[in-house]
Queue: 4 jobs
Job 1
Amino acid sequence: MRRVLALRDPIRLIPLLFLGAIIVGTILLSLPFATTAGTRAPLLTAVFTSTSAVAVTGLIVVDTPTYWSGFGQGVILLLFQVGGFGIMTSATLFGLMAGRGFGLRDRMATQVERSRLEKHDAVTALKLILAITLVVEGVVAVILAARLFGTYHESLGLAVWHGLFHSVSAFNNAGFSSYSDSVMGFQNDPLILGPLMFAVILTALGFPVMQDLRTNGIAWRRWSLHTKITVAGTAALLAFGFCATLAMEWHNPETLGPMGWGAKILNAAFHSVMPRTAGFNSLNVGAFHDETIMTNFFLMFIGGGSAGTAGGIKVTTFFVLFAVVLTEVRGQRDAGLFQRRFGREIERQALSVTLLSAALIFASTTYIASISPIPLDDILFETISAYSTVGLSTGITADLPPTALLVLVMLMFVGRVGTITVATALAIGGRDRPYRYPQENPIVG
């Protein structure tokens, strides 16, 4: 009986669903015909690739188009499509397939990080997610395929495949590419980079924001606080990433330096989007200046919006903490934004998620640095990218020792389900004690 209850507990179901998908993906990628050589992939390679796909990260230890066969690439596409639906969609879909209704606890647990989906029926939410997925992926795939067929003279079948693969990868913020150099071959093509940016930005906002925009349009006053913070925060972070990349890489001969004005602006804009957990690269990340890498640390750690396909600690988490700090600096009583105050429980959740995430990244980076001669900044970039399910890399992934790759596997898994699980557990697991201890304040600072 306890086992049945454990499986029905959504908080425990979240990691189990993703773990099951990773296991299935590993088995499929271990089949001989999943590789172009017709031999079984090493177990670690299959596990790493499967986890990266399900966690919609995009880190790779082998070249996707040359190592994996058409079947293997199809499995990878299916895995990041499943992973991209997110915990909320997966739990909702499983509940509907089983023919069970959702109680209050189930609804709260299948939403992600206390999103506004608690106000909508599970069926409505599922229909919205499916509709947006099919429409956006379909439109972007058609645009990309048409461009690849008409301008780059790829065969129709190949153009359709590349268009579909990149469309699904972009929509799910997966970062996998069916080209060996990601999208560096399209540095001067806004009709390739533009649709990819659109898909990434849209889904990085999160489904609650999409629902709010669908219902209230551009009426700012009618938006929820969550939507206002996510949209305004996303715009600010994109602008910051764009300006920082453009300024710091303007004269770098290995990145923006040789390009004209238009290409520099296009690629700086594209890269400002990718650290938000998408993972495509049109520039050589390994050639970035140190200050640009530092900027990417910041952007990757924050990630995108809640209840979507993005990773990181999330935009709302960061700006809640920012508002708390600003409130303390101003000597005010209540923290909040846009003429709304936050509850104390939200502040504690934001602080808990951020500190736990930072601690895990710190511990993982320290361990990998102790067993690998790779420079510390490259390792830190890799661990943040893995935990935040970004997929960008300075090119060290395949050079890491097996134990370090297992650490990255753990980071990708925890980064995808950990923050969701922790935030959900904090949201529904709080209990008030019938008593309070006497107050005494330690010295801070």
Note: Residues 122-150 form the longest helix (29 residues).
Job 2
Amino acid sequence: MNKAAYTLDVPEDRFDLLDNLSSRPGPLKVMLVGGTDSGKTTLLTFLANGLIERGLRVAVVDSDVGQKGILPPATISLAFPEGSFSSPSELTGVAHYFIGTTSPGQYAGEMAVGVKRLVDIALESADVVLIDTTGFVEGPGAEMKRLKAELVRPDVTVFLERDNELEGLRKLLSPYGDVVSIRVSPKAREHSREQRREVRREKWRAYFSGSALVEVDLENVSIGGTSLFQGRPLTDEEVELLSSLFGWLVLAGWRGRRYTVVKSDVQSFPRGYDRFALHAIDFERLSNLLVGFIDGNGLCLGVGILKWISFSAKKAQVLTPIPPEEIGRAVELRFGRIRVLETGEELGLLRREEL
């Protein structure tokens, strides 16, 4: 199921916008902003096809991690369409930046940096860079858009609005480039939460089809996106003390600014402790956790699902479609904040501080 498909049955102001953009000198950076189901991806598809038809080299930066078009999910992706297309899901990404979640409210910095990194790559060869964004436009979402605009400095930011509801955000972003407001098409269709979830399910399933289980030697890569492995390993005495105090099976632990332990509950009783002194991670939270394979340039080679981790052997088993030769280029295994199965079923989101 694709939420957006290319069509010429569009309001006249879209053609005016296309004329506006194609008449500007390049390279041109265009960011699309609008609420959920406002038609951003449909507009991007229309503009990309129109610009390509006019002989311009177009790049697409897909940063709508909640309703990702270009695989893999939970990343920001860059693609260069070679011809007309009906949906961004037809495009193949050439570079990716790992976010690790489909709900990036706590990842405004990573979202802004990721867009900036990929736009810079796109500008090396594109005449026009089209940037799709999430429908997260209020509160932290507005600040996320500001950070992107501040870093990228889009030449034009296009706002899709129904009733001038983005006036405040337009004013917030106006210092960083021209702003254009167009109305949401009356044909724009709202999608239920379950429909959006089904779209994601299809994307996960498509990405992980043909995956294989690989063993990752954690001695050979750094571990990012988590407090695991930070600090010195706990002594046997510290493990025994924490286990007896809290009724845990402590599987691993480290001492830095605070204690960090991976544990499994052996006994069931209320536990109280200072979270600033002790950070306890349930081992089950690591099961089926999305992880990213990061190269030496900080870009994402692809993603995988953490199936098992042995802290004593410092090995991890990860299900991924990435070829072995590509995995060999990874210098970091970065932990995400969504648990998902290769069938596409999402098991839940984690808060940033949980890991």
Note: The first strand starts at residue 28 and ends at 34.
Job 3
Amino acid sequence: MSHSVPFSILDLAPIGDGQSVADAIENSKSVAACADDYGYQRIWLAEHHGTRGVASSATAVMLAAIGAVTKRIRIGAGGVMLPNHSPLVIAEQFGTLAAMYPDRVDLGLGRAPGTDMMTARALRRNLTGEVDQYPDDVAELQGYFSDDALTKHVIAIPGEGSHVPLWLLGSSLYSAQLAAYMGLPFSFASHFAPDMLLDAITVYRANFRPSKQLQKPFVSAGVMASVADSQADAEFHFTSAKMKFAHLRRGTNVAFPKPVDDMTSVVSASELGMINSTLRYAMVGTQATVSEKLAKFIEATQIDEVIFSFPIHDVTTRLHAIKLTSELDFMKRA
């Protein structure tokens, strides 16, 4: 049996085919309330823009609603795409959340725009400046959250003195190296970029330097999950995630798909091969099946936390999957 680790949830606030943005927001609130009841460590929402299947583009606004329907669970971004924003604005937003929900707010940061280049320009993202000012932006954000007011010309109110913990998110070695250098916890996106997982974790742990926030390395990794009472049910509901990846590869911008009985009727064999490779760490099946696969994943990575996403179209089925996952033996309850 693998060691116990905290379980967390990454919620993409999916706007399902046949559902409205309002439905997606209510569904996210239900997911958060269930995660709170079932002992998950944290629930994060991700910043995506211009995507018909995702309702969490205004991430901080969504988190305010999530905080209001939960009592204990940590809430945060997984992540905010920092190049899209002024660090001061993010400090004010998350400083406000930290004042509303003390000691419960995380801020995970990503380096990608989280959208296409035309939408990135519409976000007023600086596309002509330094090649990569991301490390400086992260350090600037840390400064706004600190209480070292004497050295500041610009202050974040709210934000100053809140010490909101930062995480770096990544799908390559770059963020692993930066997280190690800055002494920050690192979360790897193995739910959609599995190839570099083990290398990134190795690089992060080997190069980690202790910081005020964190004394030793801390790694979480994302996996998709569809857990059900039968293998057939789990696999049926996971076809939604597979079709979403097919749409991404085709550049088709549509709502989160309903599940289908036969994937070969909607995608080609070569597409399906690529999708299955990308989703190789997905946990799909009964509690027994998923428990076995998850034990191997935790053993291979020695990760400190698993962050699940549940890409399931029907919210009742999604909530049931969250409950079944929380009952697995090696979940360390918050």
Note: The chain has one domain: 5-229+282-332.
Job 4
Amino acid sequence: MTTFRDLQLSDVLLQGLQDLGYTSPTPIQEQAIPLLLKGSDVAGQAETGSGKTAAFGLPLLARVNPELQQVQALVIVPTRELAVQVRQELKQYARHIPNLKISAFYGGHSYRIEEDSLVHPPQILVGTPGRLTDHLGRRTLDLRHAKQVVLDEADKLLEMGFEEELDTLMRALPRERQTILFSATMSGDVKELITESLRAPEFVQATATSVPDRIRYIGVQVPDEQKRDALVRVLESIPHAGTVVFVNARLTTEEVAHHLQEYGFAAKALHGKLEQRERDKTMTLFRNGTAAILVATDLAARGLDIDKLETIIHLELPYDEAAYLHRSGRTGRAGRSGTVYSLVNQREAQKLEQWPEVQVDNWLEPSNLKAAKKSAATEAPVFTTLHISGGRKDKLSPRDIVGALIAEAGMNATEIGKIEIQDFHSFVAVPEAAASKAVAKLNGAKIKGKKYKVSLVR
């Protein structure tokens, strides 16, 4: 079995991978990393969850010079969520590299913060096309030293209409550079982008348009008018915390989330029309377990980092097989198992069986699911989330927050749930019964010598 040491990575990168518990590379990493380390342009086809961020990220980190305070590597991604995720992953891999700065620029983020960051530029910049071209137009971003560029989720970049922005960015980069492209699908448009942007590329592939064997597929054939009732019955029959329910339209997410709330489930809706702040809050609540179920459009199928997601439910089938596989690929990641339920009418069942990469392991009869009872389904959420008006820029750490909850609110460390530190905000999950007391106590105390506003996240 190949190890990361076999790939000739530096000791500082190997130490970071060891800290994360990573020992063996995924297939896409094993193929791509040696090619990228020797400087080749690479075009890779890889699904979400295949480890592609490390596949391009580790070679980027290996080749940048921490002593040169200029943008040396640019990672272009389609969404704000993916920008944040990629930056975080790269920072984890680079934890033992001193003087290395990694930034993420995206819509909805403060221009002033980004411009201040560029006074001492990051060596690696992750960003969305619109925001990056805005900085070029303002002459705040200098890409003359960028020797590496990554086009991540290239099919999504093109699908979202970023061709003009990509052209602008590629023209602003040095002609002598390494170009790396990853895409889940290889459509004609993606192949054209490869031809235009990469020089003599090496091609790598990891299970194109397929999902790992560790995912189990279950089908439930049910008429459209009975689907929401069947959804409740499925959720009642499984450990449902950390489940994503996929639908096709924004309004449907709200309707289904409300329907599940009536049955006692802690469900939240996620769609593209939510303001960025609300999307961020919803994802925080889902990641820390306060919201057990996420009802989402395909916005959540790509680029959102959801740990230990075990169950996907397709309440509505997407329009094609590739979208179905993208959704399903959110589970069964990093060696873990997952289950995918598809609630389909007769026509959709036939459609599902015609998709060659989808093999339903088991069909459940709706009659085998227990009847749903309104407001009697599940217990109320165990955790409530607290918001603290300080974060990474205030030098707050999870240890500081745990210490304050123990010292001021009288909580035990074992009671405290997941803590998420952002640049200017922090979130912590605490037992619902202790939440009000914790808010009152922390508002009257100091965390790391400073007072912060603490409130419940609704």
Note: The chain is about 35% helix and 20% strand.
